[in-house]
Amino acid sequence: MFAPEVVEPVVDRLAALAAGGRVLEFAIGTGRVAVPLAARGVSVTGIELSEPMLGQLRKKADLPVVVGDMATATAPGRYSLVYLVYNTIGNLLTQDEQVECFRNAARHLDPGGRFVIELGVPELRRLPPGQDAVVFTAEQGYLGVDTYDTVRQHLVSHHFTFGEGRQARLGRCPQRYIWPAELDLMGRLAGFELESRHADWTGSEFTTESSSHVSVYRRS
Ligand SMILES: C[S@@+](CC[C@H](N)C(=O)[O-])C[C@H]1O[C@@H](n2cnc3c(N)ncnc32)[C@H](O)[C@@H]1O
C-alpha cells in the first residue's frame, strides 16, 4: 500500500477533487497518503485516534492533526474535501458510529463539498456453505485469514507472520463490513448524494466482480 504505483493515483485523484480547497483526512495514520498530497501543495489536516501512528507521521511531516475519533472529533475550519481510505470506515464497529462518521464529514464540509471513501466489497460470495473463514492471502512468511460473523456483519482479519521456526505472530483487526448500498444510505442520512463510484482510483468501471470501490459523495 506504500508503493508509489499505489499511492500516486490516490494522490492524483484527491488533488483533483480538492480543486484548490483545504482537505481533511479521517484516520490519517502515518500519512501514507496525506504526506505526498501535502507535498503537491494541498492544505491537508488530519484526525487520528492513535498516538503511535501520529508519532510515525511526525517523523515525516508537520501536518495539523486533531487526536480523536473520526466519528465525533472536530478539526478547525471548513474543507472542500474529506476522505477516508484503506477500508478504515470498517474500524467503526457499529452502524450508528459509521453513520456518525458520515455526519461528521458533512459537518466539516463546505456546501457542495465531497466525502471520498475507499472500501472493500464484502467477500461473502467466497464463503462456502457452513464455513465462516476465508484465506485471503497465503504466501511465504504471511497468511491472511478473515473470519465472518454474518449476523453482526463483522469480520476479523487475522494476519499471521512467521519465519522458519514453529512460532508465528498474529495481529487481529476487527471490522464491520458494509455493502455499497448500505454505504449510500448512510450518506443519504447525513445529507450526501453519491456522485460517482469506481473500482479504483484511476476510474475503472465498478462491476459485479470489483473487490473494492472508491465512492465520491457530494454534500447536498
Ligand atoms: C489502515 S490504517 C489507514 C491509515 C491511513 N489512512 C492510510 O491510508 O495509510 C487505519 C487508521 O485508522 C485509525 N483509526 C481507527 N479507528 C479510528 C477512529 N475511530 N478515529 C480515528 N482514527 C481511527 C488507526 O489508528 C489507523 O491509523
UniProtKB/TrEMBL annotation:
The protein, known as: Class I SAM-dependent methyltransferase
Pfam families according to UniProt: Methyltransf_25
Occurrences of domain Methyltransferase (ranges): 23-113
GO molecular function terms attached to this record: methyltransferase activity
Biological source species: Amycolatopsis mongoliensis
Alphabetical keyword list: Methyltransferase, Transferase
GO biological process terms on file: methylation
Gene3D superfamilies membership: Vaccinia Virus protein VP39 (3.40.50.150)
Entry EC no(s): 2.1.-.-
